[in-house]
Design goal:
single chain; 239 residues; alpha/beta; Rossmann fold; 5 helices; oxidoreductase activity
């Protein structure tokens, strides 16, 4: 049986996305990066494949997986969904003044496209001839576990918390198949949330690789601290 390992990162930004690429390459993975800013349909000298897409357009997701299978010769064995979006309400004090079209766009990025990607990942896992680990990891945050009264977080929290439901369900549904599903939520050492600029790309890359390659009892709602790995925060987590 083949042992080809392929990582697909959807939403491959300069922090977590690029660090995932670096760390997984070191572990023997072929890497595919998808974002709005990368070169379209390019293979770099180190073998990384880049595909340009706007994940607001959920209809584009299936074609990305088809392209990868056609150009690399197999489906991704690990899929990381790393995209996020946030729209500030027109009235900063009123959560319901987010324009509906902006809410729908942000939900498409964080939930609908992610849901389609997870379905495509499972189809690929089933069809894969590789004995490499199979995993889907979603870059989440604390807003799937707590609901602070902060209007500007309306779309970000709605998208992340919506995705957390089906990730948790899929974790149980596909456990017997050996497919792993995780909602990864980086925290400070005392369990607080982190700003986007404070997220650790290297810390996420190391933790995600551990989730994929090691057998552990880490739950699907995988809270972690950079440099420490999984840490359970009973007052702000999910089961």
């Amino acid at each position: 049986m083949e042992t080809q390992k392929i990582l697909l990162v959807l939403g491959a930004g300069p922090n977590i996305g690029q660090n995932l690429a670096k760390r997984f390459k070191e572990a023997g993975y072929r890497v595919v990066l998808v974002s709005r800013s990368v070169a379209a349909n390019e293979i770099t000298p180190d073998g990384t494949m880049t595909l340009r897409a706007d994940l607001k357009d959920s209809s584009s997701v299936t074609a990305l997986f088809d392209t990868i299978k056609a150009k690399i010769g197999g489906p991704p064995t690990v899929v990381v969904y790393n995209a996020a979006a946030l729209t500030v309400p027109k009235d900063p004090a009123n959560i319901f003044t987010v324009p509906v079209e902006s809410l729908e766009d942000d939900m498409a990025i964080m939930n609908t496209s992610a849901f389609i990607a997870a379905g495509q990942a499972v189809e690929g896992f089933k069809a894969s001839r590789s004995n490499a680990p199979k995993a889907f990891i979603y870059t989440g945050n604390i807003l799937a576990a707590v609901a602070p009264p902060v209007p500007r977080l309306a779309t970000l929290g709605s998208g992340k918390s919506a995705a957390s439901y089906w990730i948790g369900a899929a974790s149980g549904l596909f456990k017997s198949e050996g497919y792993k599903f995780y909602f990864a939520d980086e925290r400070t050492a005392d369990g607080k949330s982190l700003s986007l600029s404070d997220l650790s790309g290297p810390g996420a890359a190391e933790f995600y690789l551990q989730l994929v390659e090691e057998e552990s009892e880490i739950p699907w709602y995988a809270t972690f601290v950079s440099g420490k790995g999984y840490v359970h925060f009973p007052d702000s987590t999910r089961k």
